[in-house]
Amino acid sequence: MKPNPGMEKHQHPVKSFTKQSDLKDHQRVHTEEKPYHCSVCGKSFTNRSNLKKHQRIHTTEKPYHCPQCGKSFALQGHLKKHQRVHTGEKPHHCSDCGTSFNQQSDLKIHQRIHTGEKPYHCSDCGKSFKRQSHLKLHQRIHTGEKPYHCSDCGTSFNRQSNLKTHQRIHTGDKPYYCSECGKGFTTQSHFKTHQRVHTGEKPYQCSDCGRSFTIQSNLKLHQRIHTGEKPHHCSYCEKSFIIQSNLRNHERIHTGEKPYYCSDCGKCCTTQGDFKKHQCIVKLKFQEIP
Known about the structure:
This is C2H2-type domain-containing protein. By secondary structure, this protein is of the alpha+beta class.
């Protein structure tokens, strides 16, 4: 009797075990039986060894130590992954671009660049992300959660990186220095924008008239000339303005505020522009006096 080709196709290789206890543990993969329960959180496992590994989460036991730096781990597998930091071993390679990674999970995340896969979706706005951590950061926009607090002034931030940047205001730390003029900056983005002063680069171009700008915010302000948008409204009259600073200057007509004071003659001016003009006149008058 000839064997059924269909049966051969669906047959799986028989797995063998040296101990009957190991066979029983393995069979639970198929039966989904999990007789070993954690007394702390109730989580269940197919075998006792996995339960013991899990219980280290609660006991904080970390029996596996790195001989290079002394860092400890609850699982031997985690220690092996960590040791690749010291050895430089990157056994997981991307078949698309050849980039290598020390963890398979990092390779999977990287491959989403090639596949375009974004498996983590925001339930509030539908936006998708490659990484779960990026989704969590994004969700703080909707929840308003700001878990990182400045110990100096109490300002809160949704990202730790934003807190670190903010703290430079208090410390005076300016790690980004311009090699042309020596000016220092607290953020890399401000440094890059400043460099355009020296290079003359204006990457933001108006699609209506072709005028170019060094920063995107200036392009947006300029485009209001073409769109006619005037989002800044006077609270005293119906006049509107393209730029907020122009609104502030205008409202001083209503309030009578004149914040710019001339120390030479005592005259006060409404705007900085008027004040500068006045200073030029005063300077010329002093020059005329013999």
